[in-house]
Amino acid sequence: MKILVLNCGSSSLKYQLIDMEDESVLAKGLCERIGIDGSKLTHRPAGKANFELETPMPDHKRAVELVMDALLDKEHGVIGSADEIGAIGHRVLHGGKEITQSCVVTPHVKDVIRECFDLGPLHNPANLIGIEACEAAMPGKKNVAVFDTSFGMGMEPKAYRYAIPDKYYDEYGVRRYGFHGTSHDFVSHEALKYLGLDPEKGKVIVCHLGNGASISASIGGVCVDTSMGLTPLEGLIMGTRSGDVDAAVVQYITNKEGWTVDDTLNMLNKQSGMLALTGVSSDFRDIEAAINEGNEKARIGMEAYVHRLVKYIGAYNTILKGADAIAFTAGVGENGPLVRRMVCEYLEFLGVKIDEEENKKAYGKQVVLSTEDSSIKIAVIPTNEELAIARDTLRLI
Ligand code: ADP
Fold first, then answer.
1. Confidence tier at 226 by pLDDT (50, 70, 90)
2. Contacts by 115-123 with C-beta closer than 8 Å and gap 24+?
3. pTM beyond cutoff 0.90
4. Which terminus of the chain is more solvent-facing, meaning fewer CB atoms within 10 Å of its CB: N or C?
């Protein structure tokens, strides 16, 4: 069975076709600038030359048609007929209070995705368009929605409720949801298996450090707490997002600048985080290069990033009453020896020890960094959200 995985953004569409016999990727690619001038498809078939096509894509429906054309093409295609695709798995950002797990798309599921447009204004509309584009392009095929918020639905009220009047939870669904859920779910379960921990009781902290960054605590793969909140803005310092700030900062800056609240939130989401703190970039490769050249602001930015991260690790280690393992994942977690070393140095007082030679060599591969006598196991576990979506899709159909 082959599963097509789609991740639709407001103007982009990422896809992978996965053969579930051996979980190999047959092809992957990206449609960029959908609905804008200069739309482009980049198609990467396994074992064949890459293919690029610049052609107008007025909407996601056209993008899905072009993806199907690329997958079926005689030269750079990887399947002979659309019938080979068993189902389509969609990444969906927000499922609100109602949806707690992945599900086959029905009219009701589409209604829920629509009702959550306010909670995920950039992603949910695009996700729904992607689903409807597939329904139109491949009638009769099952579509499965895999929600970024599902993992966080495992939390108890003591972790997900904000300390504000009930009305806002009851009427508007204001609570901690948590995002990157597919990744936290995948990596926490991989960590349990890879590190030989009890599948029911193993306590794992996952640090998902990409452009967006979040951290979770789980027991037996069930979420106990996670750092992102109603939206992905809360928690860790990220590439361009501030993470935690005093909510009154929003009012203060809005008034001072004569802005709207939306303007201020835009600044907190897009012009803050490491970009603002370092004055260099949101990309850790640029930040590390600047630190190596003696850039003091970049060094302080990196210290602030690690400070926030270890603050959360400390809190989650306590909530778990002692973690068994900490897993690093996503772009920085998988490829950033400096951040991993700085974090683990803070944890030495707890008895955490890592092999720095292993840490320096660990780029994008699954590896244990901790020594035998470390009190907590430390590992790099590459995330694979597409595979997680494909597995859920296969399970549900
Ligand atoms: P997202 O999926 O959230 O866009 P990724 O998980 O792809 O993000 O992570 C992107 C980040 O990974 C980049 O901003 C970059 O800082 C970091 N990254 C990638 N490669 C390296 C590397 N070799 N060293 C340090 N950081 C890296």
1. very high
2. 119/94, 119/173, 119/177, 119/230, 119/231, 120/93, 120/94, 120/231, 122/9, 122/10, 123/8, 123/9, 123/10, 123/92, 123/93, 123/94
3. yes
4. N
